[in-house]
Amino acid sequence: MTQEVIVGTGPLSFDEVVAVARHGAGVRLSDEALAAIDKARKVVDELAESPTPAYGVSTGFGALATKHIPADQRAQLQKSLVRSHAAGSGPEVEREVVRALMLLRLSTLATGHTGIRRETAELMAALLSHGITPVVHEYGSLGCSGDLAPLAHCALTLMGEGDVDDADGVRRSAASALAAAGLAPVELGPKEGLALINGTDGMLGMLVLAIADLRMLMRTADLAAAMSVEGQLATDRVFAADLTALRPHPGQAASAANLTALLDGSSVVASHRGPDCNRVQDAYSLRCSPQVHGAARDTVDHAALVAQRELASAIDNPVVLPDEARLESNGNFHGAPVGYVLDFLAIAAADVASVSERRTDRFLDKTRSHGLPPFLADDPGVDSGHMIAQYTQAGIVSEMKRLAVPASVDSIPSSAMQEDHVSMGWAAARKLRRSVDGLARVLAVEILTGARALDLRRPLTPAPATGAVVDVLRFAGVEGPGPDRHLAPEIENTLSLIRDGSLLAAVEETIGALQ
Question: Do the bridges between strand 163-165 and strand 133-134 make them parallel or antiparallel, or are there none, so unpaired?
Answer without folding.
Answer: antiparallel
